[in-house]
Structures are given as structure tokens and as C-alpha cells.
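Sample intake sheet
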Amino acid sequence: MDDDIGQPNDERPSEIRPDSTDFDDSPPVDVLLELVAHQHRRDLLRYLIRSTDTPTAIDEVTTHLLERYAEGTSEQPDRDQLELLLHHIHLPKLTAAGIIEYDSRSNELRYRRHDRLETLLDCLDAADLT
């Protein structure tokens, strides 16, 4: 008879228990893929990753995104529409996933480092998929 079958997880040998230190606090891979599925979020994340660890004003991010889109097309996106998309779609998704902190009173963002997310963005860049 095998005595290990009835043992609770915390009494099993350590080699079969996953070590929580092996993973960062990033969301699951499906959530990460959803977060990088939209060009606005990818560009926003790249900008925040390159910025310092200090809070970044939403106006600064919006200006950067507008310049980025002007480079790729002859059209200039509407600033107000982009801000609405950021406030109502993209920032809430990133905040809910724990990727950014957004202070609506000061209109500032702070990126929280996530190794798996940054690796995913690097892979997309290397594959030229963005």
C-alpha cells in the first residue's frame, strides 16, 4: 500500500511541489497574449518599459502614441478618440492584469516590471510581428 496517496500536498517531498519562486508575479500566458494583441497596448507597454520607474503622464503617452501612428501612416489619429480608447479600454485591461498602476486623479501611469511580458514583447519584436 502506498502511504503517499493520502498525504496532503504540504507533506509531499519538495521535489514534486512547484516552487513558487520559479515564476514572477506575471498574469497567466493567455492574459499576457490578450494584453499584447492590440497595437495600442504594445506601443504603450514598450514606451513605459523604456521610461524610467517614475510615473508617466497620460498626456506624454498619448503624444508618443500619436507620433508613432503618424510615422506608419499618412493619417493623424484624433487625440480625443485615442485618449478615450486609453481610458476606457486599454488602461483598465492593463490595470486589471496588474501590469500598470493608473492614478486617475493625477493622470499618471506607472509600469510594474514583468519579465514574462517583456520577454513576450521582445519575441514579437524579434519575429517582426508588430
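Comment: Residues 44 and 61 are 7 Å apart (CA to CA). Confidence is low (pLDDT under 50) at residues 1-23.
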